[in-house]
């Protein structure tokens, strides 16, 4: 991930932690969440001389990347359950 993308991700995430605290993202409309994040995205757009739409896209890409990285870390701590075969085989023994 590029440094600017990491910077965008960190700034928006930090801001979101403050303004979306206590909001259930599964039960809250995306438009409401985006409206709450609009100020930080506009600020970053001015700072990085781009559009708030570009900031949103770059944030979402970085969030997807971070989610995949976190999943890899999680899987590595558990190990790969499927490498030992089908658990149903053990029940038949």
Explained architecture:
- The model has no long low-confidence stretch (mean pLDDT 84).
- The protein has 93 residues and is mainly α.
- The chain contains 4 helices and no strands.
- The protein has helices at residues 3-19, 30-47, 52-78, 87-92.
- The chain has one domain.
Quick gist of this model?
By secondary structure, this protein is an all-alpha fold. The chain contains 4 helices and no strands.
Mean pLDDT: 84
Structural class: mainly alpha
What's the structural domain tally? 1
Number of helices: 4
Beta content: under 5%
The succession of helices and strands, N to C, reads HHHH
Give Rg in angstroms. 19 Å
Q: What is the 3D shape?
A: globular
Count the E strands: 0
Question: How much helix is in the residues?
Answer: over 70%
- Terminal CA distance: 47 Å
**Unreliable runs, pLDDT <50, ≥5 residues?**
none
**Oligomeric status:** single chain
> How does the major sheet shape up?
none
Key features of this structure:
93 residues, mainly alpha, 4 helices
Q: Could you outline the blueprint of secondary structure elements for this entry?
A:
Blueprint: H1 3-19, H2 30-47, H3 52-78, H4 87-92
């Amino acid at each position: 991930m590029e440094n600017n993308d990491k910077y965008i991700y960190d700034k928006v995430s930090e801001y979101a932690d403050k303004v979306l605290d206590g909001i259930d993202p599964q039960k809250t409309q995306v438009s409401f969440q985006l409206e709450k994040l609009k100020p930080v995205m506009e600020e970053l757009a001015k700072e990085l001389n781009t559009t708030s739409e570009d900031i949103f896209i770059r944030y979402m890409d970085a969030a997807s990347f971070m989610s995949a990285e976190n999943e890899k870390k999680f899987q590595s701590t558990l190990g790969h359950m499927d490498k030992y075969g089908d658990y149903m085989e053990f029940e038949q023994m």
